[in-house]
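Give me the fold.
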Amino acid sequence: MLRKIVPAALILLGLTIQGAAQVPPIIDREMFFGDPEISGAQISPDGKYISFIKPFRNVRNIWVKERSQPFENARPLTADTSRPITSYFWSRDSKFILYVQDKGGDENFRIYAVDPQADGDPVPPSKDLTPMGKVRAVIYDVPRKTPDEIIIGLNDRDPALHDVYRLTISTGQRTLLRKNEENIASWVIDLDGNLRLALRQTDDGGTEILKIDAEKLVSIYRVTAEETASPYRFFPDGNRFYLVTNKGASLDKTQLEVFDLRTAKTMVVERDPQNEVDFGGAIFSERTDELQATYYIGDKERVYPKTKQFKEDFAKLKKAVPEGRLGILSRTDDENLWMVSVSSDVDPGSTYLFDRTTGKAVLLYKSRPNLPTEHLAPVKPIRYKARDGMTIPAYLTLPQGVAPKKLPVIMFIHGGPWARDYWSYNPYVQFFANRGYAVLQPNFRGSTGYGKKFLNAGNKQWGTGAMQHDITDGVRYLIERGIADPKRVGICGGSYGGYVTLAGLAFTPDLYAAGFSIVGPSNIITLLNSIPPYWAPLQKMFKVRVGDKDDPKEREMLERQSPLNAATNIKAPLFVVQGANDPRVKKAESDQIVAALRDLGRQVEYIVAPDEGHGFAGKENRLAMTVAMENFFAKHLGGRRQEDVREDIREKLEAITVDVKTVTMPKRESVSLDETMPAFDGARVTPQEREYTIAMTMMGKEVRMNQKRSIRKDRVEGKEIVRVVDEVTGMMAGSDTLDLDAATVLPMRRSATQGSGRLLFTFKPEGVEGKLVMGAQTLPVSAKLSAPVLAEGSNVELAVCTLPLTLGYNATLEQFDVMGAKAQKLHLDVVGEERVALAGTAFDAFKVTLKPIDDEAGGQTLWITKQDRVLIKAELKLPVQAGGGTVVKELVK
């Protein structure tokens, strides 16, 4: 045998032939993110046909073949050219295939039916069973006893609520079963196709199960906002149903119980034998209605057979197919033929047809047969401790062929947030690992599946709270073990994972080197203001889990947790991805963070797909986003990348890339307030002398100044006035003199100087006249007014001090915006009462926020003493156009 010669270049790099060979090749991104050749196979209930999803004219559609035919002989049943079909199901009598489809990702789903035996050119016609615009159809049940009927919900009468209909598939005829006039979030059908139960949220955000008794709804079971209860399936007798619940202080994990409608009593069926996780799910016989198996998903899935027959059949199945995670996709009516998937962390899956009578399984297809799975990276379940001692479950994937030391890292964050990651094949995780990144998927508190204590620990903990800390602590876990290069940590995710990406860059700006946010909300207030109407029955859940935007203290918390309001902190490059039709996270959420960062001079890139919603379903859009993501992280974290890009994908990426210079800050939604400015009480303004310190923080630097304020009463031209003089010393020295009407506290004249700049204004009911002098340049100012205004600065502060402040008080003010030469409306809220210690004295003060109504960002907060109405502290957020940052003023004496 010839001795292999080690090339000199490899010796110089400290590598061996063996070590170099272990580094996997760069796998073409299309093998991860292109459409699978075949997916989603099902066997018809009568066993005659096999259906599946496969591209037709470059878009995923439904196909069908006779069971014994080869896949090459299959024919397409649908020919959607604009949006892929991702799921479908058979009618109980095998006469129809039904599927749902929306337009451009707007999630206004319609229900369609197609006859698999019908002819067509090139496909048989699909029947639109819910032909209504801007209506979201949902399917509640597919009754076995009436195979030509399904039970559906439609929100055509009220966008927030779904009425219940019986829909005949063959004719499209709909029969109203019940109007939803009781704020019902969901409905439950028994095995005979009868409407039996309803679920709705209670006033405290909990869940209530109601029995349908003719026209009445009778409450039969309630849980609090921190508990879970959900009907799972009826018994054949219609008197009992399976219930998944964790009701009670002694019960943390959800368990399976039986609820008896005759006695209103429950009986425990099963809880996790390992007491590790919540109840995962159950498998029932559609022939006998027996409970055949239960399963739980801890680090991996565990299945527990419940009948002798299923135990034997499942054992045969495991012997007949390769080792991996098993999934029963569908079964024939006689349950002799099973469509089964087998997958793992490094295998996207294969599909088999299993015959339980013979114990044999036949491989039908591999979803991605060309994917070199031998080069994929194992996904390892791990645990790490959060800063408060809570244990965080997670999955760690390390790139193949390199030592796990000082690696670039991607924190890949799941959406929801009330969801979780699983041990499974994930194309993004494997793609990142193939490019040389270590990937951590933390199931941070607030994730589901680990019991109510773990879930509830995430309540109101977004952004600056413990949910984000868990992710930060995951990064530190990797750094402490030497796995992560602290200078090359990136963060990425979609939906809530996109929010976490923005929050990570805003609230821990030194932790991440880059962030890639996919449909992530940037402002929790605007997110909650724009949720789809059909989520209205769940509004109380958002108040419990996220926060109550209508509560002054919680609104302040939500504003602190909104990355947009901390955009000035973001230093790392950011890439933002958005679907134009997203009904959950509106395009404005991305527009506003992109515009803010652009105005701050930060590195931000942006793509918007005009034909997508909450995530990218189209293949070309998906691949274009992947190219952008790969290049972005390679540039900022140093991972590997595939150099070549297909021309059509390159063109698609160019088409959806947005020039950030063209992005405009969305207008804030109108606030329902009295538009008339309140009257100010001049008698409350008393002569006084005050001194303040001023600290201006911008781009991590602080400038300190001092301010003296003199307030005295005078008479000018026979009229009583209040003259306010502010003298500022320090780096930005200047003076500002303001004459106010002594009775109304409205401005009359203003004169200010700073350096070589001067401002001279006269205020009259019809408008403002004056000039700005900047060195040798003079700019005249002339603005017409339709209502009185306040002058910026001291006038606003004094005017607020004269109002009848009390907790919860709100009003609309108008101030004159000097730079914009126009009136600007401010939303005033008394959001709290605080004890503030300044200058050696403790003051009881009102906390007052002032925010521009036409712009969610910016604004100021004032602290005004309750007794004598003196301004003791002010905090001003500078607009991004002025460089961002904050100005804090505090009373000295």
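Residues 1-21, 669-674 have pLDDT under 50 and may be disordered.
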